[in-house]
């Protein structure tokens, strides 16, 4: 196979963009196991006290992820994230105002392979979320498994990430006075297995947990569609019914995380690797769906609001797809 190497005269700005995304990919794929290894390795060196003291800290800080985490504005505002934004580039598009006196659940679609758009838009300040929606604080949900990793848990909390279990997601929504936006990649890890370029499969047809949570807390629902999210990686063909897809789904049920076999480009060449392609991601935030608080919704209540949410998401897609190169005959496929 012929390898297409990057030219030697690549501008420094593009090199910095690649470095920023490279560290993000490593953080997503390799930092957690690295932190676990480091934690145990230190126990058998003269620096063993670091791990011991961290264990004591962890004991007292154990519940912090489920209580809103610990966002550090300095980390969210690092220049690093501007370079990551410009690599693709990533853009956040506002279509309606969100009242900061209310709490919201933002349903993010599609998950993609590594939710690049969700992280850049809602965990960093690079795309202007604070300016577009003044008074709102965003919390992106992440698999609870990652908050069990020493050191790594503290790093991801700095960016406003919290566990995706019901208790953790409900905590910001219970706060009086509003101003909290919980961002849920509704399709979750299973949807990553459908993240192929040119596909618009949304794992939503049976997903009603976030609908019930919205009703219980009176949090308004906001559909969000991220054009380009599925375009930044290729994935080995794994159609439903194949042995590969069966194996991936089985592992996902056992481990709680999906294992899409994805690839794209490298750092110094464009032929293969785990770096995403430089393809634009445009995240469209729709208008809010007003939700009345109902702590004991019936099945009919849930079904009605769920259908309304799917209709609004479909309308959002149809309204904007022409601006982002999607064929007029292409529609969302609710799975």
Q: What keywords describe this structure?
A:
single chain, 335 residues, alpha/beta, Glycerol-3-phosphate (1)-acyltransferase, 7-stranded mixed β-sheet, two-stranded parallel sheet, 12 helices, 11 strands, 14% strand
Task: Sum this structure up briefly.
It is a multi-pass membrane protein. The chain is of the alpha/beta class and 335 residues long.
Structural commentary:
Its main location: endoplasmic reticulum. Pfam families: DAGAT (PF03982). This protein has 335 residues and is of the alpha/beta class. The chain has one domain (12-320): 3-Layer(aba) Sandwich (Glycerol-3-phosphate (1)-acyltransferase), CATH 3.40.1130. Helices cover 40% and strands 14% of the residues. It has twelve helices and eleven strands. The chain has helices at residues 12-42, 48-61, 73-76, 79-87, 116-122, 129-132, 152-158, 166-173, 188-192, 209-217, 243-255, 299-320; strands at residues 90-94, 104-109, 137-142, 161-163, 180-185, 201-202, 220-227, 234-235, 262-263, 281-285, 333-334. The strands form three sheets. Strands 1-10-7-2-5-3-4 form a seven-stranded mixed beta sheet, with helices on both faces. α7 (152-158) links the parallel β3 and β4. α1 (12-42) crosses α2 (48-61). The longest helix is centred in the N-terminal third of the chain and has 31 residues, at 12-42. The two termini are 37 Å apart.
């Amino acid at each position: 196979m012929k390898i297409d190497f990057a030219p030697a005269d690549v501008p420094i700005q593009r090199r910095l963009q690649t470095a920023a995304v490279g560290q993000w990919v490593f953080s997503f794929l390799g930092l957690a196991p690295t932190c676990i290894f480091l934690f145990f390795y230190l126990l058998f060196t003269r620096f063993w006290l670091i791990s011991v003291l961290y264990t004591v800290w962890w004991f007292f800080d154990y519940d912090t992820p489920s209580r809103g985490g610990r966002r550090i504005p300095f980390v969210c505002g690092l220049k690093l994230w501007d370079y990551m934004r410009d690599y693709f580039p990533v853009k956040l598009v506002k279509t309606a105002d969100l009242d900061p006196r209310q709490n919201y659940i933002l349903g993010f679609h599609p998950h993609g392979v590594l939710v690049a758009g969700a992280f850049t838009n809602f965990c960093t300040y690079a795309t202007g979320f604070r300016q577009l929606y003044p008074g709102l604080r965003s919390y992106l949900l992440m698999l609870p498994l990652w908050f069990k990793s020493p050191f790594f848990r503290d790093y991801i909390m700095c960016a406003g990430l919290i566990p995706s279990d019901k208790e953790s997601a409900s905590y910001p929504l219970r706060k009086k006075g509003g101003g909290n936006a919980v961002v849920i990649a509704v399709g979750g890890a299973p949807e990553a297995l459908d993240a192929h370029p040119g596909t618009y499969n949304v794992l939503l047809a049976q997903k009603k947990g976030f609908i019930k949570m919205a009703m219980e807390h009176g949090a308004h629902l906001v559909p969000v569609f991220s054009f380009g999210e599925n375009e930044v990686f290729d994935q080995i063909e794994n159609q439903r019914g194949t042995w590969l897809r069966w194996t991936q789904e089985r592992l996902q049920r056992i481990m709680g995380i999906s294992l899409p076999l994805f690839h794209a480009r490298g750092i110094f060449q464009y032929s293969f690797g785990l770096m995403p392609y430089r393809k634009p991601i445009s995240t469209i935030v729709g208008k809010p769906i007003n939700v009345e608080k109902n702590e004991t919704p019936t099945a009919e209540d849930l079904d009605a609001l769920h259908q309304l949410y799917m209709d609004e998401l479909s309308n959002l897609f149809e309204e904007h797809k022409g601006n982002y190169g999607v064929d007029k005959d292409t529609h969302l496929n609710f799975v």
